[in-house]
Structure formats: C-alpha cells, structure tokens
Amino acid sequence: MTDATGLVPGTAGYGDQADLLAEQYESVTFDGIYGPLTEFIPGSGRALDIGAGTGRDAAALAARGFQVLAVEPTTELRAHGQRLHPDPKISWLDDSLPELSKVRAQDGLYDLILMTAVWMHLDTEEQDRALSRISSLLAPMGSILMSVRRGTVPAGRRMFEVPVDPLIAKAHGHGLTLLGRRDTGDMFGRNDVTWSKLAFKKMSSAPSSSSQTTPISVP
Q: Domain residues for 18?
C-alpha cells in the first residue's frame, strides 16, 4: 500500500535519515533485542524478515542456517543492508505490510517470520489484514518473533499505539499461540519508549480458548 507520492506511509522519515538509522540499528544485536525468546526459533529453514531495515536480524538468522527473504520498502535502508550484509543466504525484496503482495506471489511457506519494530506502523484495520497475510505465509508449527513499540511518536513518523493483549487475542484467532512475552525498556535509552517482544507458534488449526498454552514471561 502506497500513498499519493508512491511511498509506503509507514516508511515516512526513514529514507531521509537512513544513514543515521543504519548506524543506530547496527549498534544493537538480534540476540540483545529478543533475549530468551530466541529459544523459540526453529533450527533452520526459510525465514521471512518483514521490515528488515539494514539486515542486522536477517544476517543473524542467516548465521543460524536460515535462507532469509529480507523485505524492506525503504530504498535507502535496503541499500545499506545489501552493503553491510552481503550474505548469499539473504535475498532482498521491496514489499510491505499489510498486503505483502510480492511475497505472497512467491512459492512456499516460512518456518520463521520476524517483525522487528514494524507493527506500530499499521492502524487497526491494517493489523487485522496483516495478521491474515502472515498466518497464511507461516508453515504449520512455524514461529513468529515480533517487537511492539509503545511511547512517544517522533515528528514526521506514522505510528500507532498497539495494545498488546488485544493483539495476542487476535493472533490466537488466526491459529497463533503465544509462547513467550518479554517487556523491556528501549534499547537506545529513550525514557519515553518501551517494547513488548512476543513469540508465537502456528498450530495446525485455530485453537480454542481452553487449549491455549500458558506462555512464559521473561525478563
């Protein structure tokens, strides 16, 4: 989905600040962001990194043995990613939520879907559509890791507040069972920003409320 200028609305401000953001993104690690939730990552397979930014997380997954499709709609960030992480296990694609039309046009399902600092760019209606798209792309028993931002919206950015408990309930309705949740402060030291990191698994069918597993909460 693009606006009148041809840009994805959620990417507003990112292209102009790509050089600064690349330095910022690369200053933290994938393991540092998700911590104990990384235990829910499958051993290997196909991974879809939505909103891949500079490829930091895609590179971490490639190092774990995944073939990674890194999806990033901001041209400038995608260029940084291809420069910083020229790994043959990583393929890059210009696409975006909620439709992921180019991703869905490709064959196959994914054993892991990653969405780091992406969900807050979608409004409620877009989130509902995105959950349907993501669930359809995830292999049975596949996993999702995602981080959800809360806090002050920077000037010029398109972001929305995301209540986490309703998100978990909606994901459950798409057959996604919450395995773990990690609530943390901001990795860049901003006092007005906090994060929830979530791990889901896709069950073979949408579970009933009585069959939902008890997720772990980790520091």
A: 9-210
